[in-house]
Amino acid sequence: MRKPRVLELIATALVMASCGTSQQSSGSPSTAASPAPAPAPVEATDVVTRAERGDIDAQVLLGTMYAEGRGMPRDLAVAGTWFERAATSGDPRAHYALAVLAEDPAARIRHLDIAARADHAPALRGLGLAYLRGEGLAQNEVESARLLARAADRGDAEAGFVLGMLLAEGRGVEPDALESVRRWQAAAEQGFALAQRSLATALAKGRGVAADPELAVTWLRRAADQGLAEAQADLGLALLEGRGTPTNPVEAASWLRRAAEADVAVAQSNLALLHLKGEGVPQDDALAAHWFQRAAERGVGAAQQRLAMLYELGRGVAQDDARAFAWYTLAEASGERLARERRDALERRMPSDRVEAGRELAREIAARLGPL
User: Fold this and answer.
1) What is the pTM of this model?
2) Which residues fall within 8 angstroms of residue 220, CB to CB, at 6 or more apart?
């Protein structure tokens, strides 16, 4: 069986709480070095006994324990067996878990549909996302929005976030900026980081809500603290520009570095610029070139132009007019208006063979990067 997707496995973990059983801490010491597995905890033994006697809650709980390796060895096949036994009684939690584990799209949809008919919120969300993506059934954004609304109304934060996106974009529903923000707010208050970032963006731009840059930064911090790299990039830029918060280049650089290391291209470009200027970080041309290169290869036009300038001047990298020509060419294609002017000026100073080398290099880089 395939490994369940992370968000779905987190949702499945809610089954354990619904059964009123404490969960084993993920930070407990490993017993991998032991020559034989330790005896099952009393709680696990009790769950097995009740499950074998036909207790549906225990069957669902035991399946979850095997699926997550909590109190039992992680074994998705055994987990599926226990979920199947609980599902014969129509338990929506078991059907949802089987949908998560299913390799066959038709089986996945069948289990989601059964659980959704019982108003199981994660199943409603899962079925809504399937309609949105056209996975296992025909794409239907109207039905997707309807199911996501039902899930969100039952407290599913991810469903509320996606529904907010549909409302903002007018997909499957009439565009409604106010309702979009309301859905994001509800999901954000539940701690859903993507919704926190979307709410922050709405507050910063005054879309569907009165503009409030300070509150926007508050929500960005919450999302950034949860590790959402895009929110870290947004927060770094807000701190750099003093939007909704006092300007703080040092803290800005810290957040931008986290996002850059998570491969957020715009953060890589902004961090490179800070190193180039020595703003909030020590001035370092080599680090500037490193981060401009990372962002340039992700298609950020401003980074491509800056990288070309560094190659032209030999700052942080060995001087290379052909590489400078190539990156100016790519920056122009990305919409940087000054790139062509600088490339043409460079071309007038280059021997014809170096110009041709630059053109060939631009073609090679473009082919390597592919569609961005």
Assistant:
1) 0.84
2) 196, 197, 200, 231, 234, 235, 238
